[in-house]
Amino acid sequence: MLVAVAKHLGLLSLRLADSIILPLNTTHYANELEVYVDTVEAAAATNDHDLSFATLRRSIVSLQEASAALDSEKASAEKALRKALQKLAHKRLRRRFVRRVIRWIKKHLGLEVDPIGPKDAEPYEHDHLLDHSLKMLSARAGDVERLEKRWGKGPLHDLIQAAKRVRKVNAKLAKFEQGFISEDGIRSRNWYKHLGVAPGRYLGYGATTLPALTEAVIFDRNASLIRLEEDRLIALIDSMAQNLLN
């Protein structure tokens, strides 16, 4: 498992070298939720329960639609930021400019940052623009507005606007997984808070998807508890969809 995690983190790091948007696929996750529900329904049928999770499935569809909308914004925001970077930097300096942006992003994600080469370390006429534009990726909204007023319209203004969009998209992506966290946790072991996936009740560290709902169906076999767990998932998923749309 540790090897798989290390490989996954390695792939994330590699993709960050080519992408300004966090390489997190919310749509794939949202689609997988349907498969998880299929698994729960199959388990219910095995236990002679005729259960339908139609309301939960509708919530999942809403999350898929919200994620698809975010996918469109991801592509558009990244394109706008790259275009703004190209406008701002001279052609011979463009790669250097983008490399500095990527190093800054990786640093603030806690990832290993490539050493600065001799050419990148040399000061040049656009350093003041670089400093201000990089601040846009983490500045508070009020700071961004003040800097917009200071610099006015033009290439830097376009970069600020694009960076604001990227920052907003990345914030949604970074918080997506947290949407499955329930303060009440999983019944019988509430130290596990993630209702999307967690170690199974009798599986040691083996993973169970939709653990609270799955175990209510397989082990507890209590209709009221099953509906309670379904409702908890629906509330979380609806909130996640809304967060992606806001």
Automatic annotation (TrEMBL):
Taxonomic superkingdom: Eukaryota
Gene3D superfamilies registered for this protein in UniProt: Transferrin receptor-like, dimerisation domain
InterPro entries, per the entry: Peptidase_M28B, TFR-like_dimer_dom, TFR-like_dimer_dom_sf
Keywords of this entry: Signal
UniProt keyword Aminoacyl-tRNA synthetase, yes or no: no
Leader sequence segment: 1-17
Record domain Transferrin receptor-like dimerisation: where: 130-244
A single GO molecular function term of this UniProt record: carboxypeptidase activity
Record bears the keyword Hydrolase: no
PANTHER family (alphabetical): N-ACETYLATED-ALPHA-LINKED ACIDIC DIPEPTIDASE (PTHR10404), VACUOLAR PROTEIN SORTING-ASSOCIATED PROTEIN 70 (PTHR10404:SF46)
Protein's UniProt name: Transferrin receptor-like dimerisation domain-containing protein
The organism of origin for this protein: Coniophora puteana (strain RWD-64-598) (Brown rot fungus)
